[in-house]
Structures are given as structure tokens and as C-alpha cells.
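Changelog note: in this version the structure field was regenerated for every chain. One regenerated record is shown below for reference.
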Amino acid sequence: MTVRRTSRTIQTAFALCLAAFVAVALTACGTAPSSGANKTLGFVVYDVGVDPWMNVAISTVQEEAEAAGYKLSVVNGHNDIAQMSSGMDQLVTQKVDAILLAPSDQESMTPSIKRAEAAGIPVIAFSLALSEDAPVSSFVGTDDVQVGREQAKMVAGAIGNRGNVALMTGILGSGPQIGRSEGFRAELQENFPDVKLVEEQPNNWANDKTISLTQDWLAKYPAGQINAVVAQGPELLRRPPGQVYGPKRNRLRRQRLSGRDAREHPRGRHVRNHQR
């Protein structure tokens, strides 16, 4: 079973979620979304071009910002804390009206966020949650623990509530990785004791790491010893399963695949405003 986003309703909900994110950002600028003349938003992303979900997010935020009359300045963090911090500081120096932040972990950007706050620039966290110490104005994202639980239920059902599962996580230390791994493991332990998690390694939401990791697992385990391969993002859906092979007797197309973020239910997303 390969999960693909085919429903227009799901696609619309996805776009509305991102539109809501931009609306929160524009509100943080202290002006109505329709009056964004001479306003600029900064968007600091942990690594542009790697995560397919974030690629769509960037383009959608760009469209929504332009439609509202705002300029958008995107900073590529290249998955490096020093570059993300430097990018944040540059946006503060440029006196942008608000900063959108998709960080690689929950802690490292807190000092930069505090510097932006001191300069009177609101910071909105997107998709990847931050620690409670980070003085962000708002967070727009998922309940990642519940996402992990729902994915465990889906995968368990797909393999008849019995078998071995290999899990690819996102970037270690990031909000989605921590929350989704916690929820996934908890759901299996509490409700599906015959489903065993035999592998758990990060693919960092990157396509090349997804392919190499899948090939490694298929070479390591004889045919039938892994019943499902699971990813916390949509990486497994970027390449037709028949194009990625392990040993001849154990092709990926014989495994069950599951990816998240390719399909989102509107109730799976929430906006949490921090009153400060």
C-alpha cells in the first residue's frame, strides 16, 4: 500500500493551512493582510530544496505573501545552526516586519529569536515546534505525537496488526522527529504488541538518504522479514517503488510504504498562539 495525495479536498486543506500560516504572520506585522505595501517577511528554513513538504510550503507562502502585497525574503539555513542564526540576525538588521521560522531543532534558535524579540520583530514558528523557552509569537503546525499515533494505526492495519516495521525519522532533535517518534512507539506498545519496530534511523527528510537507507534495509533483511517501511515525511512517495531495489528477491515494491505530510487532514493542524 502506497499512500499518495490524490484528493482535491486534501490539497485544498493543505493550501488553506499554509494560507492560515501567512495570515498569522501578516497579523503579527500589525497590519491587515490586504495592506502589505512596503512590508517584508523573512522566512528562515532549515534547508531549502531537501524536504518536499517544505518546498511546497515555501512556494505557497511566497504566493500568499505576494497576493497580500508583501515581499518575502527566504533564508536557506543549509541545515547549519550558525547559518540559520546568521540569517536571522541579517533579517533583524534589515528590520523586516516579521520572521517565519522552520528550525532544525527545538533549542538552538532560541537566542536568535530573543534578539528578534528585543528588536520588536515577531517570530512565528512553522511546522517544526520549538521549546517553551523560545519567545515566538505563534506556532502553526501539527500535533506531532498524534501524527505518530495515527501513522502507527495506519501501518498496523495495513499489515494485519502483525509484523516488523522499519521507521525513517526526520532530523534528530526536531519537533516532528521527537513527537512523531514518541507517538508512533507509544501506539505500537499500547495497542499493537505484535507489530515490532525493528529499525529506526533518520533520513533527514532527504530523498537520497531515503533511497540509500531503504536499500540498506532490504539488503540486511531477507524477503518477508520487514513488512512495512515508514517515513515521517513524504520522501517515500517521491520515486516509484519499482525504481528502488534491494536484492532481486526483495524488491521494494513488495514492501508496504507509508509517508506523512503528503496527505493532511485539516483537523490534524492547529495554530497555537503564545500570549506574551
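Spot check on this record: Residues 8-28 form the longest helix (21 residues). Confidence is low (pLDDT under 50) at residues 1-17, 240-276.
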